[in-house]
Design goal:
The protein has about 325 residues and is α/β, with parallel strands linked by helices. The chain has 13 helices and eight strands. It has a single domain (about 5-320), classed as TIM Barrel. Helices cover about 45% and strands about 10% of the residues. Helix 9 (about 185-195) packs across helix 10.
């Protein structure tokens, strides 16, 4: 895949991958709570396989599995001394799987140090960006920022340290405002004015609770926009998935179906979203249905042709009983 992300987006919507950390926790190789990415070092085969699943499902971009991969955040689980090794290794894993089939995006996330020290947060961004760019990513994603100030700092680091395209997405909990008091339109206009190539919204909200935000996002800019909802059902009273008691260990009954995520992709395209992806709770079958909804993979499942008159499976038998 030689075309850059911006060249690809000129041709139509690009499909991103799904969620990593929560799925790796379900596979018993990551910790719920800190949600740090040490699996890239300790269980590389699990990370490699999840990348492969998203690629096989139709994802056109694989993100480096380095969310919460900053030095200070890794220090909370005793891995601060592994920060460079982790970021480099995670980037290599994504590139190994992507090959020529998908683009690889650097991944930056909240440092949880912004309010305490903006200077330290910028230093942490510089470290991660430097290592991931050095390993050969195709573009840079900074995601899930709650503060416009921290999103701007990540963008500034990315622009200073590379010539790669930069996508910055922010997350909104109860109110469609950043934690430092900026409305969605202000956030997006500011990021575009400071050089972001793609701006958008990710995480926290499910598709139903993200639609109004996407409309505000699309109205705020004529440029390229991204949307990546979670695949867990939220409510109007609690529109973000991390607030109910079910988070983080009892989310399973709240997971959306593959068809609901497929419908999100279809509608997102209609609303003019350019980079269509998904976040926490989204696994390979969700991404595959999204790819199918966007016309990126064929509709069929294979050569099997069911015969409901002569059932040879529970699927055929059940349908025959309905007739």
């Amino acid at each position: 895949m030689t075309a850059s992300i911006l060249e690809r987006l000129k041709e139509g919507p690009v499909l991103g991958d799904g969620g990593y950390i929560l799925e790796l926790e379900r596979r018993c190789v990551a910790q719920a709570g800190p949600f740090t990415p040490e699996a890239a070092l300790e269980h590389p085969d699990a990370v490699r396989e999840l990348h492969r699943e998203f690629l096989r499902a139709g994802a056109e971009v694989l993100q480096v599995m380095a969310f919460y991969g900053s030095r200070e955040k890794l220090g909370t689980v005793g891995r601060a001394d592994k920060v460079e090794e982790l970021n480099r290794r995670a980037t290599r894993l994504a590139k190994e799987v992507a090959g020529e089939q998908a683009l690889v995006a650097a991944d930056l996330s909240p440092t949880w140090k912004w309010a305490e020290s903006p200077e330290l947060a910028r230093e942490l961004f510089d470290e991660q960006i430097g290592w991931q760019v050095d390993e050969g990513v195709d573009f840079i994603i900074g995601e899930t920022f709650f503060h416009l100030g921290e999103a701007r700092a990540c963008l500034a680091s990315a622009k200073a340290l590379s010539d790669l395209p930069v996508m910055i997405t922010m997350a909104f909990r109860g109110e469609p405002m950043s934690d430092d008091g900026a409305a969605i339109s202000e956030c997006m206009k500011t990021l575009v004015s400071e050089g972001a190539d793609i701006v958008g919204i990710n995480c926290m909200r499910d598709p139903a609770r993200m639609w109004p935000l996407i409309e505000d996002l699309r109205a705020a800019t004529d440029g390229l926009i991204a949307a990546q909802p979670v695949a867990f059902r939220c409510t109007d009273e609690k529109p973000w998935f991390s607030v109910p008691p079910a988070f983080p260990h009892e989310l399973d009954p709240l997971q959306l179906t593959r068809y609901e995520m497929g419908e999100f992709a279809r509608k997102a395209k209609e609303l003019g979203v350019d980079y269509i992806g998904s976040c926490c709770g989204s696994v390979a079958v969700h991404v595959r249905e999204m790819a199918r909804a966007l016309g990126k993979i064929a509709d069929g499942e294979g050569v099997w042709q069911p015969d409901y008159d002569k059932p040879m499976s529970e699927t055929e038998f059940g349908r025959a009983k309905e007739k």
